[in-house]
What we know:
16 helices
Amino acid sequence: MPESFEELLGRAKGVLDGNWLGRYTKPSPHLYPHQWNWDSGFIAIGYSHYDQARAQQELSSLFAAQWRNGMVPQIVFNPDALGGYFPEPDFWQGERSSHHPANALTSGITMPPVHAMAALKIVRKAQDRNSARDWLEDLYPRLLKSQEFFYRDRDPNREGLAYIRHPWESGVDNAPTWDPPLAAMIIDKRSLPPYQRQDLKKGIPSSQRPSDDDYDRYVFLVDLFRKLNYDEAAIYEECPFVIQDPLLNSVLCKANEDLMELGQILGRDTGQLREWYDQTARSLRDKLWHAEHGAFDVYDLRAGEPIGTLTAAGFMPLLCGAPTSEQARIIYEFLESKAFCSMDDERCYSIPNYNLEGEYFDTTNYWRGPVWVNTNWLLLQGLRRYGFHEKADSVARDIIRLVKRCGFYEYFDPYTGKCYGTHNFSWTAALLIDVILQETGSGS
Ligand code: 2M8
């Protein structure tokens, strides 16, 4: 392995060590002091290469806080670190729900379920096979319960497409995609519960974070959920933000596939998973495909129409094999256009989260343009699946170049490669480990 990779791997492991709290890993030292749902999945993927016990523990800790209805919360709060983030348990009031676990403090929403992917990776890489099997026996039913939650409580039309009911559930919080449904929410600021943002006190310029208007809407939604005691059926009736997102649904679809493999290892019947997989893949392909855009759109269930904002989420169905070969070819052309930084374009790093030519593109504002390592890692898996290896190699190379250039940051300017957001960011470190060991052949 090249010396520079050895050195980078050492530094990446150092970042994870610094954020490891004994049972799980916080996303970053200051900005995100608790355990986050999909962060822990990505982090476990990094650990799977060199610390099986920690990888297993990371997911076990998260699922110990699973709600009784199967929902895996977006945040599991660290009781020793309260006071530095908003919103925390006093605001969420998760205990209003009969589903909230008694022994944990959590938020009342979820995130894309990347954990089956992580679990499969852990099991495949395990040195201690007995420990992995025991661990899987325990985790597998919990992973299934999370799938059941999405299909039972978030898919009212039984289409195989789960909806999100808060931008935070998408993981791509202030992506321009959410602007139209958020703008359509008429809120009376005077009736919002009082709150104070904490994120702007951590040294990151407000121009790089969601706006105050966004936060008012985030808070409005949380307030609605707690007033309705987190009753999913009641929320579905009243919530103004109800959206089928190709990112979450591609991850959900992929989880079925990975759970089928895990189920076979345990000798379980995987018929239900196959049905879910087929239905979600079909609906992604038929309902969310937008031929004119040449990408997959989100579908706004309240407005009854797609939102045609082009972000990297529009390519995500590659991850689970949903696109037809023709759809995949069209997506590939798009990914290889100026809009998403083609391989031979030396002015930019791939893949920006939002169309470089889009009206709201911003080089440094959070999910409104920058390059992110986690979504690119997911796209990388999809590109490989469809045999687009040259592009996958170039995405992997750009991840390494960006981190080498300025460190383990949260997001990167797609033109200058400058790094932004919080530093010593866990998933950047964890997925860099995977990219170096899995994608460059350095691990074999
Ligand atoms: C960001 O989101 C949180 C809310 O969940 C925030 O802005 O406070 C997103 O990037 C999300 O995808 C990520 O999981 C979280 C922690 O890294 O930070």
